[in-house]
Amino acid sequence: MFDKKAKPGPARQRQLDRYSRLVDRLSPKSKLGQGLLRAFITGGTICALGQVFLDMGLRYLDMTVTTATTFSSMMIVFITAVLTGVGVFDKIGQYGGAGAFVPISGFANAMVSPAMEFRREGLVLGLGAKLFTIAGPVLVWGISISVIVGIVYALFPW
Q1: Residue 7 DSSP code
Q2: Sign of the torsion angle spanned by Cα atoms 47, 51, 56, 58
Q3: Of 15, 24, 99, 118, whose CA is between 20 and 30 Å from 9?
Q4: CA geometry: angle at 65 spanning 64 and 69, to 5°?
Q5: What is the DSSP letter of 35?
Q6: E strand spans, the chain
Q7: At what angle do helices 105-117 and 129-155 cross, to 10 degrees?
Q8: How far is 93 from 109, CA to CA, in rounded Å?
Q9: pTM, full prediction
């Protein structure tokens, strides 16, 4: 093998330097401030929409706080799934970056996107099977950890 800590020879070092300059010249320059602002606006808009649903549940639908919170999350997931299905959420994600995917909308998008790729294979084998490609492991780990925590609380109440 070779020693990773050994310094490259002069010819190899020139090649590495030339490659580094090429990468610096051809790589697109990141607009960090613009990306942060877009993520903040997009994520803030999604969260504000969730707050609107929460307030609607409390004020107009006479829900409890727990029920209204669940209602708000379900509405954000539903709207994101529909927007992903019609191809609009991809554009929102390109604009807002992490701001679009960090809230619960990212989970809905992650569930629907794989299913949309396989919809031409049919509703059961294509759409239905791929719908849980991402959600399956999340559900398995979530349920498993819930059972373990429940057992620990049952054995050691405090």
Answers
A1: P
A2: positive
A3: 24
A4: 115
A5: H
A6: none
A7: 140
A8: 10
A9: 0.64
